[in-house]
Amino acid sequence: MSEHRQHIKPIKRSTKQSGFALVVSMVLLAIITLLSVSSMRSTNIETKIATNHQLKELSFQAAESALSIITGTSTSDLVTVYNLDVPSVVGNTAATDGFYASSGTDQASSHADIEMTYEEFIDPKQGMGNRLFSGYQFDVSTHLFRVDSRGIVDGSGTQTHNRMQVALIRQ
Fold this sequence. Notes:
The protein is an alpha+beta fold. The chain has one domain. A hairpin with a 7-residue loop joins β1 and β2. The longest helix has 53 residues.
């Protein structure tokens, strides 16, 4: 028996490979990496902006809540309940730290400090009663106060300062 072997010739390949595919894939990988890092940075900045906006809103709400208490509470309750000595002499100022406090379960705790300055006494008997309040003229004794409320979000350093003029009218 004669053995007949068939020889398979190997395919000749070019021995000069330039590595073009490797270079292209490395460039594409670098571009994808840069895009990923850029989008992560953008997301982090947007998250910080949203958090700062939320804290600013909380401090604003605390300051507004304190002003709402001032405008909706009798003078005697401001003294007895809220420990704010309402000034009785023009030019005097009274202040209370922690006038309003809010401790939320799903948001940061906040509080508001109040400063109340007695600005002017308007006496209609002395010809000073021609003041308009919300479009109406009153012929009654009126005490004008400047009230500053500073809302603060605890632990963040976020603060909001609100100011309003309050008229306590006496008949």
